[in-house]
Amino acid sequence: QSEDGTHSFQLMCGCQLREDNTTGRGFYQYGYDGQDYITLDKATLSWTAADVGAQNTKRKWEADRTIAKRQKAYLEETCIDALRRYLRFGGPSLTRADPPTVRVTRHHGPDGDDVTLRCRALGFYPADIKFKWEWEGEDVSQEMEYVDTRPSGDGKFQKWASLRVPQGEEQKYVCIVDHDGLAQPLAVRWAPDPSSSIGLIVGAVVALVIITSLVAGFVIWKKKKSGAKGGKYSHASSDSSLLVKGCKLVLGKERGCVVS
After folding, report:
1. I need a surface site. Which of 20, 103, 120, 146 has the fewest CB within 10 A?
2. 237 in a domain, yes or no?
3. PANTHER family in the record, alphabetically (predicted)?
4. What is the C-alpha separation between 239 and 233, in angstroms, rounded?
């Protein structure tokens, strides 16, 4: 704390251990009030000042080279030993790699001309994952929008990246996802939902059944209507007669037709 208020002085350091058990780059840097302040150059045992205010600290620490030597020893020995110990304690829970489940969905925009393809990766670990969109082999990732990687609540992670595309050209675009849990990058395209096609088929069949029933009902109604026009018939006696097309048919012992 000084006369003009309270200030913060932060330290961030880290080391790297490769899969073949060799060490990689390490870093040792300080910040002041949330901004970079001064950083150790491990190779030359010198310090890099981020602003004018750090120049005084740079001169002071480089005058005493033991400060840089201690920090270098920490990065190459103490930090590496601690990292190996954490990896041994954590075991498979730290070294596991769960591959993502990837799916591309389509969403209509407000204007109706363009649609949005959303590439969603779920259930992966560790959190580092890469997305790329391609159009017929051409990288169009600079146009995509994405959200930061988020925890799923079960120890795994989720993330999505979206891209606006012209309607009707959805299947020309492919989402490529790369993750440590995958043997090779996974390429996924949008595919129409099969259930929508089944729904159309079922709807067409139902409509056909309804139309067939209406036609059959109309034919039956017409036949009944035509039959009603013929009048009512009763059993004829032996002496009865019928008028058929202008000819009086005499029934009985003597059968014949008398034109009236």
Report:
1. 20
2. no
3. HLA CLASS I HISTOCOMPATIBILITY ANTIGEN, C ALPHA CHAIN, MHC CLASS I-RELATED
4. 16
Residue 172 in 3-state DSSP?
A: helix
Up-side HSE of residue 64: CA atoms within 13 Å toward CB? 7
In sequence order, the β-bridge partners of residue 102 are 121
CB 249 within 8 A of CB 241: yes
Residue type, 134: E
Which pLDDT score is estimated for 93? 77
Report pLDDT digits (tens) over 214-257.
777 767 777 776 665 554 444 444 444 444 444 444 444 444 55
Q: What is the pLDDT of residues 33-56, one digit of tens each?
A: 999 999 999 999 999 999 998 999
Is residue 108 domain-resident?
Answer: yes
Q: Is residue 140 part of a domain?
A: yes
CA dist 116 and 35 (Å) reads 38
Domain boundary among 63, 95, 127: 95
- For residues 106 and 188, membership in a common domain is answered with yes
Strands (E), the chain: 9-14, 27-32, 35-41, 46-49, 101-108, 114-124, 130-135, 138-139, 145-146, 150-151, 157-166, 173-178, 186-189, 241-244, 247-250, 256-259
Residue in this structure with the two tokens 């002041």, named with its chain if needed: 32
Residue that is last in its domain, among 146, 179, 194: 194
Check whether residue 71 and residue 118 sit in a common domain.
Answer: no
Three-state secondary-structure class, residue 87: helix
Domain total in the chain: 2
